[in-house]
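User: Let's play a game. I give you a shape written as tokens, and you guess the letters that built it. Ready? Here's round one.
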């Protein structure tokens, strides 16, 4: 049996359809999240909010629709990837993963000082205490001013009594 050739236009239509499915997936997810809230429609003040069982049922239904659409879209995307691999447009994922792993390993060897390069963290930390010292001085000065004003206030009340 001869394999059927699929035109590029057909592939583009399939990808466009998958793109529309992504919108539906997001709508199902949004509806499921809204079902979790006690008042799913805050603009409608006349209708009473649905009871807990109705919200649970709606959440389960919307979640089921979302996961079904997600599985369908994943399968369709996977078929598109396989077709691109067969056509030689992209390489198999295993080869790409192996190359990516070796690139990451090479990049990790190039890292110096945890990715900070020549930046000396000890130098930064030694200067970091200056802020604490300045703030401590301000607090001591405020405490002294407060103590002086309290002593003046106590001295004035003793002299008038």
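Assistant: Ready! My guess for every position:
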């Amino acid at each position: 049996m001869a394999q059927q050739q699929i035109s590029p236009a057909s592939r583009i239509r399939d990808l466009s359809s998958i793109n529309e499915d992504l919108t539906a997936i997001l709508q199902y997810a949004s509806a499921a999240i809204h079902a979790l809230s006690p008042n799913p429609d805050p603009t409608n003040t006349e209708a009473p909010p649905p009871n807990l069982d109705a919200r649970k049922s709606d959440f389960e239904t919307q979640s089921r629709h979302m996961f079904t659409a997600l599985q369908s879209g994943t399968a369709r995307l996977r078929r598109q990837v396989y077709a691109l691999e067969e056509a030689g447009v992209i390489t198999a994922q295993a080869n790409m993963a192996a190359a990516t792993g070796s690139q990451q390993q090479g990049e990790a060897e190039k890292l110096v000082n945890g990715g900070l390069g020549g930046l000396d963290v000890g130098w930064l930390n030694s200067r970091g205490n200056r802020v604490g010292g300045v703030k401590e001085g301000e607090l001591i000065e405020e405490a002294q001013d407060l103590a002086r004003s309290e002593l003046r206030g106590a001295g004035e009340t003793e002299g008038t009594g």
